[in-house]
Amino acid sequence: MSKGDEDIVEVKCPDCGATVKIPAAKAEQEYKAVCPKGHEIPLAKMI
Fold this sequence. Notes:
Distance between the termini: 23 Å
Low-confidence stretches: none
Strand order of the largest sheet: 1-2
Oligomer: single chain
Strand content: 25-35%
Number of helices: 1
Mean pLDDT: 89
Helix content: 10-25%
């Protein structure tokens, strides 16, 4: 599970299919994630 009370967002890279886990706070701040191969994954705001 996640560390403490930190929520984790899990997304799949559309380019290579790699799974990326990013803290929800960082996802909401940056609206992007980067997979291990360097592909940038744009994120949408959760409602």
